[in-house]
Amino acid sequence: MNWTVQTVLAEDADAYGKLVFAIFGVYLWELFQTSNFEWSLITGKRKFVWPMVIFLFLCRYCLLSSLIGLIISLSMSTQINCQALYTFNAWAGNMSILCASTSLMLRTVALWERKLKVLLPLGFLSLAHWALLWRGMFVIKARYDATSDSCEVLYTNHIFLNISFFMTMGFDFVILVFTLAALIPGKTQKGRLWKLLFTDGLVYFLITFVCNMIPAILNVLDLNGVS
Predict the structure, then answer these.
(1) How many Cβ atoms from other residues are within 10 Å of residue 38's Cβ?
(2) Strand 141-145 relative to strand 150-155, pairing
(3) Do residues 194 and 186 lie in contact, with contact meaning Cβ atoms separated by under 8 Å?
(4) 3-state SS, residue 227
(5) Which element (helix H / strand E) includes 137?
(6) What is the pLDDT of residues 108-156, one digit of tens each?
(7) DSSP state string for 43-82
């Protein structure tokens, strides 16, 4: 298949648009289903622990903002500042990834009772992850195309994006390993807690692994030559 043919690109764009709207609907439902967390903080039923709460809120609502930005870019009917929109989408999307990974890291550090042998390597990897993805927020260059009445991507560094994808997968895998190493010795004493944390960590890792693996493979293939 020739991925540079206009008919193929149009079909891909249509499928991508439908996927974004579907994910947006699913995520709205997820926010609604788990809104009791925010309500418990507002009513004081849950103790406010600033690192976890701040990162959790940023993760949840940055992802929502990113999806809204994507929908705007797909359904625009008038000229807009495409560079600003794409930069915002990249910022919101990367912030949701960073906050999710950081929240898991903080939980893992807490499981290890803040031991330096765990805190130092995870802290170093977290800083590297933040630096890499923060830079990635400003890689894409876009402009408004009057002919197609849509935003057009002029440049994106697919090699840098690949590094970001693999870094995220690697960092989340290291967090998962540290989490399992902390939980497995106490499995018999903490049966319910172990099952909860193991399931959450494993499910999160599998989801993020797949979500990063697919665009990473497509970036490596560089099928349509946008770079």
Answers:
(1) 16
(2) antiparallel
(3) yes
(4) coil
(5) none
(6) 888 888 899 999 999 999 999 999 999 999 988 999 888 878 888 888 8
(7) TTSS---HHHHHHHHHHHHHHHHHHHHHHHHHH--S---H
Which pair of structure tokens corresponds to residue 80?
A: 């807009």
- End-to-end Cα separation, the chain, in angstroms: 20
Residue 112 DSSP code: T
HSE (side-chain half, CA atoms, 13 Å) at 192: 0
Beta bridge partners, 142, equal 153
Residue 155: its H or E element: strand 150-155
User: How many Å apart are CA 160 and CA 162, to the nearest integer?
Assistant: 5
90 pLDDT above the threshold of 50: yes
Distances (CA, A) of 115 to 7, 106, 111: 56, 12, 9
CA distance 226 to 153: 8
Burial 204-225 (b: 16+ CB within 10 A, else e): bbeebeeebeeebebbeeeeee
What does pTM read for this prediction?
A: 0.82
* pLDDT single digits (tens) 188-213: 455 555 566 566 666 777 777 777 77
Closest CA to 35 of 56, 8, 7: 56
Among 225, 226, 178, CA closest to 198: 178
Of 9, 78, 226, nearest to 139 (Cα)? 226
Q: How far apart are CA 48 and CA 58, in angstroms?
A: 15
